[in-house]
Amino acid sequence: MKGYPLVAPSVLSLDFSRLDSELERMKEAGVSLLHYDVMDGHFTPWISFGEHLFKFFTHRGFQTDVHLMVNDPLTHVQNFINLGADQVTVHLEALDDPFAFLQGIKDYRNGRIIGLALNPDTPLDERVWAILPQFDKVMVMSVVPGRSGQSFIEGSDERIHQIKEYIRENNLNILVEVDGGINDRTGPVCVRAGADILVSGAYLCMADDPRRALEDILRE
User: Fold this and answer.
1) Within a domain: residue 116?
2) The domain that contains 55 carries what CATH number?
3) Which residues pair with 178 in a beta bridge?
4) Which of 80, 81, 140, 153 is 20 to 30 A off residue 114, Cα-Cα?
5) b vs e for 65-81, b when ≥16 Cβ sit within 10 Å of the residue's Cβ?
6) How many domains, the chain?
7) Helix count (H) and strand count (E) of the chain?
8) Do 128 and 92 contact (CB within 8 A), yes or no?
9) How much is the pTM?
10) Domain for residue 1, yes or no?
11) Residue 62 lies in a domain
């Protein structure tokens, strides 16, 4: 797809004592998309940011990619879209009825990218293939969702490849995102497997030269 692949820094890994300069550093490196993790302490054991802090990241010249690791995500999707989120992703594992969820957000989509995240242990079976065409993006979790700084789960690139093949074979217009443990070694592996968006935390955000780090992640 035009403009892809690209790398999105995880807001969780930015230095919150100097956010303005951190965002400027990302912008100078060529970053166009920010990844914003939301954890409710129930879907994962950890709690992160919510809608209130998200307002800080709007109107900063970035596209925003909101990853909801929450139970009962419908209300949060609506809230973040109303706040200006460009992309919002929910977990299949948090949806009792994915089709009912989609019905609940149909009046909010308005060109926004709605993604479906899959935990590392969620099988790529008929349940996934049946609902996937209704989404604009699929996120392959290459770590257990929640805690930052985890290592890339080996074999995640095979899941990316399998999903990408399904998308191609069925002529679908769906982005593939990968989240977890992305660095100069795992990034190129995921790009070769078909990833369109790669979320990078510490490797990109704490790099002395973010532009070089970004280039290394996308190196083929």
Assistant:
1) yes
2) 3.20.20.70
3) 140, 198
4) 153
5) bbbbbbbebbebbebbb
6) 1
7) 9, 8
8) yes
9) 0.95
10) no
11) yes
